[in-house]
User: What shape does this take?
Amino acid sequence: MGTVDVSMNQEHRNGQAEPGAVRRAARALWASHVAQTLLERTEAWIPLVRTLRERVYERQFARVVPWARRFRGVYATFEEAARAAPAAKPVGYNNPGAAGFMEPCRSMSISDYPVLFWLQQALQESSSLLDIGGYVGICYYTYYRYLDHSKDVDWVIQDVPAVVDAGIQIARTRHSPGLSFTTEITSAVKPEIVLAAGSLQVIEKNFTDLLLQMGSRPGHLILTQIPLTHLPDFVTLQDLGPAVCPYKIFNRMEFIKSIEAHGYKLLDSWDNAELDCRIPFHPERSVPSYSGLYFKATR
Assistant: This one.
């Protein structure tokens, strides 16, 4: 922190930005939506611009960094996307780099409040929750402090082994009542509430197949941070920084209908306006805003 403070003070004293700050600002400008739109229009007139830009982007995408959130390519399946992954990076979250690059807690955003509302409603009549792809406990540590704790909640996070190991280690150092981890969804798992926040798109199995693996049908489904569009389903490749991951974009109508066909009714939906998916060189496939959905069992 001292180095940062000194640099900032020096910038103010000199009345000019340090070269590092200028480079960061230039990169931010280059990555902005306005800049990318201008580039895409230029590429239509000058194909060489696209060729050069693709080469630069490929190098950036293949670079191992502590954190990233960018996308590349359009594929039909998870397998096809995985085959297109850079050789220098592991694929998926089941590795130490991807299992530890995100903090276990984050700040609240506007789209978290519908999740909290329906979670609080569901917990009034249920107390067992399965957090699918819950990573090391992001939703648990972010939401738990806002929930009514008049009764105990059995909060189970399901994720891949490397993430579960990291989550268990973190839980040992934090106040984590009711929290446990599992690597599989089996008939022994019988949650009354299912929560999935930003995870269904990186899981190859259909969500309804995961529901059928459970020992009983959950009464409440709270799904958020899902990339839904009017386009047919497709897969892209997400760069996490230390790893890459196949990443599914869902057709909104088909996704909702598949869940309703299993005896659920959609009671609410909301925007995750803070999230988008912009795929360079495929602007027609971009998702300008993610979605949240709440379903309740009807029979």
